[in-house]
Automatic annotation (TrEMBL):
NCBIfam families associated with the record: mfs
MF annotations from Gene Ontology: lactose binding; lactose:proton symporter activity
Cited Pfam families: MFS_1_like (PF12832)
Top-level division of the source organism's lineage: Bacteria
Transmembrane segments: 7-27, 39-60, 72-92, 129-151, 157-176, 197-220, 240-259, 295-317, 329-348, 360-379
Domain Major facilitator superfamily associated: from-to ranges: 6-359
GO (cellular component) term, any one: plasma membrane
Name assigned to this protein: MFS transporter
Membrane topology: Multi-pass membrane protein
Length: 388
């Protein structure tokens, strides 16, 4: 099987988990009797700790001989934590189970991104092809769960993500190439791996790129946590909610698959600014509870608020870091953009939802505006302009 097809199938396995856990785990927690603030706290916990847990797990992963080995272990352990949610008796136990499962499973994505970005550069294929295949699986899983939930209880959400996590472990073993972590042979000592991580944190341009991407991605926090609940309040049917999520991800997939030449011409700096501008427009509009017909074009902006800013950040981080620190750099990027800032936004989203309802989107628009400021400053950096 061609490498790009194998990597595509592995991303599919990953996003069979994410396509259900991201939009629907709040529904499961709501069914277990948690309030909006409690749901926000559960969802935010792994995100807030990700700068620490992600860094620790990245350094741990760099101690293996093959890059796929830690992916297998992480997926199996995450499946166990997800399964425990079915018997967790209350808020604190659910928080611990979700913290463990989401922390372990979310570390797999930056690890496979390192492999895919490197192979795409060496073998000349578009990184967006395998990554976009994962997003296609997100759509399929999302739509399927929207239908399933009309037939059975919310417990099926946890059953699905547990089985899919085990499938991810198997896929890592059979599909991910046996690429070595360190081409020169033995892994460096743990002290040296931590030293490389420290050097990234003192690089001002690197830190600005990570924080800027984090602000733009963090602005999705309220949408990820409460859009499904809010759309239900607007009396939008459950299957149509799945379609709305699917439209957003379809736009993301189209961007990754078909706009690669344009993306390269634009460059990551300007692409990041476009993503931030789209975030301001999208979340401002959502604060007015737009009708169903207006939600479709607004969901299409996910191509920029997520896909454009995500791809721009990956390219910037790869350019700004040495190969020996690639895993740590992408893990830090994921820890901030898909972790800490998103976690803060998610934690704030619970009280915002309880107090303001749909008006909580105003706070997300403000995060997008802050990200736009960071992107404009970053665009003036000589290193970003030079692509070095």
């Amino acid at each position: 099987m061609p490498l790009v097809a194998r990597l595509s199938l592995f991303y599919v396995a990953i996003y069979l988990v994410i396509g259900v856990s991201l939009p629907y785990v709040a529904t499961f927690l709501r069914a277990r009797g948690l309030s909006g603030a409690e749901i926000g706290a559960v969802l935010a916990a792994p995100l807030l700790l990700k700068p620490f847990t992600g860094s620790i797990l990245a350094v741990w992963a760099d101690g293996f001989s093959l890059r796929r080995s830690p992916m297998i272990l992480l997926a199996i352990a995450a499946a166990g934590a997800y399964l425990a949610m079915l018997v967790a008796p209350g808020f604190w136990s659910l928080l611990v189970c979700w913290l463990l499962g989401a922390t372990l499973f979310s570390t797999i994505s930056p690890l496979i991104d390192v492999v895919t970005l490197r192979r795409a550069r060496l073998e000349g294929f578009n990184y967006g092809l395998p990554r976009g295949s994962g997003s296609s699986a997100f759509i399929a899983a999302n739509l399927a769960m929207g239908v399933v939930l009309t037939l059975v209880g919310a417990e099926v959400i946890v059953v699905w993500i547990t089985v899919a996590a085990l499938l991810t472990a198997f896929a890592a073993f059979v599909l991910v190439p046996p690429e070595r972590v360190h081409d020169e042979g033995e892994a460096p000592a743990k002290r040296d791996r931590w030293k490389g991580l420290g050097s990234l944190l003192t690089d001002r341009v690197f830190v600005l790129a990570v924080v800027t991407a984090g602000l733009i991605q963090g602005a999705h926090g309220f949408y990820y946590s409460f859009s499904t609940i809010l759309w239900r309040k607007q009396e939008i049917p459950e299957p149509m909610i799945g379609v709305l999520w699917g439209v957003g991800v379809a736009a993301e997939v189209g961007f990754m698959w078909f706009l690669e030449p344009w993306r390269r011409r634009v460059g990551p700096g300007r692409l990041l600014a476009m993503g931030a501008g789209a975030a301001v427009i999208r979340w401002t509009a959502y604060a007015f509870a737009p009708p169903l017909w207006a939600l479709f074009p607004l969901q299409a902006l996910h191509a920029f608020t997520f896909a454009a800013s995500f791809l721009a950040s990956l390219q910037l981080i790869e350019r700004l870091t040495p190969p020996k620190s690639a895993s740590a750099a992408q893990a830090l990027n994921s820890a901030v953009s898909q972790g800490f800032t998103l976690g803060l936004a998610t934690l704030a989203s619970g009280p915002l939802f309880d107090a303001l309802g749909v008006k909580g989107y105003w706070a997300m628009a403000a995060l997008g505006a802050a990200g736009l400021c960071g992107a404009l400053v970053l665009g003036r950096s000589a290193r970003v302009k030079a692509g070095a």
